[in-house]
Structures are given as structure tokens and as C-alpha cells.
Design goal:
By secondary structure, this protein is mainly beta. It has one helix and 14 strands. Keywords: Signal.
């Protein structure tokens, strides 16, 4: 009987972790964890779906927290409510701006260009400093100007 109670408590703890990992001071950056995420007009499943995201890893800015729901802003500026457990605290970024962005071997304008990225490409964000960010896109990585990324600035 004691073993069952302990197992139940551990299961409850594991289920609560994703949402509690998102309980921090707002605003903050997060990424979409799910392959499909409904953005609603209010903080409940009873509210109308305003948008459906089908892009895991897309960065979002969390601007408000309410009982398992997060008010987010996406890269295009749209705002709505999503279930907290479908967000990841991992940092990501999306390439923005006009024309191709250059992913370089080092954080310098004269460093070798490794790849060129179109606006809309999403990657995993590493460290950022002195106007440059380390970005991983699939199996490719390099340095890109911070101003070409949405999700790299302080929230």
C-alpha cells in the first residue's frame, strides 16, 4: 500500500513539472514544445481557438501567467493563451529581417560564412554577446548577428 502511494505521488510530481518549470517572472522566452498548439482568446479550453501552431521550437514571449495558462506573443506580434505544459523553457530564435542572414564560423563580420539562412528559419539559441548569437539549426551551427534573430534579446 505504501509503495502505491509513493508511486502515485511520484507520478503527480512528474506531471506537474512541465507547468511548474514555466512559473517564473514575466516576461520570459520559451519555445513551443508540441507538434500542435492551440492559441486561444482566453485562459481556458472553453475559449475560442484563435490560431493553431504546428511548429515545434518556435520562440514565443510569455507575457502573463494564469493557473496553467500562458499569455504569449509570437514573432508576428499576435497574442493569445496557450496551455503551459505545451511550452518548453528552452531558448530558441527565428531569423527575421530582409534577405538571407549569414551564419558564420566565429562571432565576427570577417569570419567565414558557413551557411545562409532565410527569414523564418528557426533554431536553438546558444550564448549571445557583443551583438552575436550562437545558433544551431538542425546539425548546423554558427554565429549570427543578434539583430537578425527574434527571441535573442532580453524579453
Amino acid at each position: 500500500m505504501v509503495a502505491r502511494i509513493i508511486a502515485f505521488m511520484l507520478a503527480c510530481l512528474c506531471l506537474a513539472m512541465p507547468a511548474s518549470a514555466q512559473d517564473r517572472a514575466v516576461p520570459y522566452w520559451a519555445t513551443i514544445r508540441a507538434s500542435e498548439l492551440n492559441m486561444r482568446v482566453g485562459p481556458s479550453a472553453d475559449y475560442k481557438i484563435a490560431w493553431v501552431y504546428r511548429r515545434p521550437g518556435l520562440p514565443v514571449k510569455v507575457i502573463r501567467v494564469m493557473e496553467g495558462w500562458r499569455l504569449i506573443q509570437d514573432p508576428s506580434g499576435d497574442r493569445g493563451w496557450v496551455v503551459a505544459r505545451l511550452l518548453s523553457p528552452d531558448r530558441g530564435a527565428i531569423v527575421v529581417g530582409e534577405g538571407m542572414a549569414q551564419l558564420r564560423s566565429d562571432p565576427a563580420d570577417n569570419a567565414k560564412i558557413k551557411w545562409r539562412l532565410q527569414p523564418g528559419v528557426v533554431g536553438v539559441l546558444g550564448d549571445c554577446s557583443r551583438g552575436w548569437c550562437d545558433l544551431n539549426v538542425g546539425k548546423r551551427s554558427g554565429w549570427i548577428r543578434a539583430e537578425r534573430l527574434w527571441g535573442a534579446s532580453k524579453p
